[in-house]
Write a structure and sequence with these properties.
The complex is a heterodimer of chains A (66) and B (312).
Chain A lengths: L2 E5 L2 E5 L5 H7 L7 E5 L2 E3 L10 E6 L7
Parallel strand pairs in A: 1-5
Antiparallel strand pairs in A: 1-2, 3-4, 3-5
Chain B lengths: L11 E3 L4 E3 L1 H18 L8 E5 L4 H12 L3 E8 L8 H15 L4 E5 H5 L3 H8 L7 H18 L4 E3 L4 H13 L3 H6 L3 E2 L7 E3 L7 H11 L15 H15 L3 H15 L14 E2 L6 E2 L6 H14 L1
Parallel strand pairs in B: 3-4, 3-6, 4-5, 6-8
Antiparallel strand pairs in B: 1-2, 7-8, 9-10
Chain lengths: 66, 312
């Protein structure tokens, strides 16, 4: 019974039934610094994560500019 | 969460604006807002030729896409920096910039630093002994020099970069920490043109980095996701992380920080511009671009130094 969160090469597992925001807090990732997608669709902080969900976290911070 | 415009499921929530939008309405909102900022800050008109600096990243490709959608005359400039570091970074970023240009039938100018100046950025940095072991200072110097040279030589009216609000807030934060008044006075959405210097504009300066990522994802724009290998541990990324902690606790803090600064700068509340003496600029005897030094500009001095060391 888990939800998997993937950020770059790291994988985290949290319990189902929590919101995305609470799940991010659990793994110490700022909601402001990532965009979450599930099955290719963007999801928001209030989304309840279900058993078996795989959430890909896309980091938004970048360094140098053109 | 529901889209404020149509009530369907929202894809993007912008807490600082108390605005959630679905994909369709978000992809309309971003160009509308960009057009508003271009007008507000008097960046350019539809009659002017724009050169957008593209790195293959989300901000610059997103900007190019938005300006094309808004009907501007805009071409791209890609600078090949020669950064490999085992991940083919420059090669991959050029591939993505070219892919975007080809798919949208757009003109992309490509300038390769090694071909132009004999060495890629990491070697220029090493040989010029600038930047305390990191090539970022040399990279920034070379980009500013080359972007201006190409814009000027090819007759563009304005040079646009993809700096977003997080970039601007991080720079502002760094300059405020050290009260670098000269830099603070120069920071803004528009750097007007002057002798030999093209006008520089930042049409995305009021969008959060997160919003530009969302824009590219929803538009299906493929961009280079991996960080520049030299950016890891950089000061700008550290400042962005700090500001995001603040933003999480106080939505809108980053935007307020930047906008209040612009207001204060404009009204002279923070600094009295007449007390600041701008250095007189002379043309560099080698490249002709303006410089405050008496002889060669910083870039040409660096190249000369590298070349003299290569010979000896």
């Amino acid at each position: 019974m888990t939800v998997k969160l993937i950020l770059r090469d790291k994988e985290y597992e949290v319990k189902p039934g929590m919101t995305l925001l609470d799940s991010l807090k659990k793994i110490n990732v700022l909601s402001e610094s990532v965009i979450a997608t599930r099955a290719g669709e963007m999801i928001l902080d209030d989304e309840i994560l279900r058993d078996g969900d795989v959430v890909k976290l896309i980091a938004v911070i970048s360094g140098g500019k053109a | 969460m529901k889209c404020k415009k149509c009530g369907s499921k929202a894809s993007v929530n912008m807490r600082q604006h108390r605005l959630a939008l679905c994909k369709e309405h978000y992809l309309e909102w971003v160009p509308e807002q960009t057009a508003r900022f271009i007008k507000k800050y008097e960046m350019f008109t539809h009659y002017e030729k724009i050169l957008v600096a593209v790195s293959g990243g989300k901000d610059s490709l997103g900007l190019w896409d938005i300006l094309v959608r808004l009907g501007y005359q805009v071409d791209g400039l890609y600078l090949g920096l020669g950064i490999d570091e085992g991940v083919n970074y420059s090669h991959e970023s050029q591939r993505l910039a070219q892919k975007f240009a080809d798919e949208n039938n757009l003109k992309l100018h490509v300038v390769d630093i090694e071909r132009e100046y004999g060495q890629p950025i990491p070697v220029l940095a090493e040989k010029s002994h600038r930047g305390y072991g990191k090539p970022c200072a040399v990279c920034g110097l070379a980009k500013r020099h080359e972007m201006n040279r190409i814009a000027r030589d090819l007759g563009y009216d304005v040079l646009a970069t993809g700096h977003n609000l997080d970039d601007e807030a991080a720079v502002l934060f760094g300059n405020t920490l050290s009260w670098a008044s000269e830099f603070l006075l120069r920071q803004g959405p528009v750097l007007p043109s002057s002798d030999g210097l093209a006008r520089k504009v930042k049409p995305l300066c009021r969008f959060y980095e997160r919003e530009m990522t969302a824009y590219c994802l929803l538009r299906g724009i493929e961009y280079i996701y991996e960080e520049c290998p030299f950016a890891e541990g950089s000061q700008s990324i550290y400042y962005k992380e700090l500001l995001n902690q603040l933003e999480t606790a106080r939505p809108g803090a980053k935007l307020t920080f930047y906008l209040r600064f612009l207001e204060a700068r404009k009204t002279g509340e923070l600094f009295i511009e007449k007390n600041v003496e701008y250095a007189h600029l002379h043309p560099c005897p080698k490249c002709g671009q303006p410089t405050s030094t008496d002889d060669l500009c910083s870039f040409c001095r660096m190249i000369a130094k590298v070349n003299s060391e290569s010979v000896s």
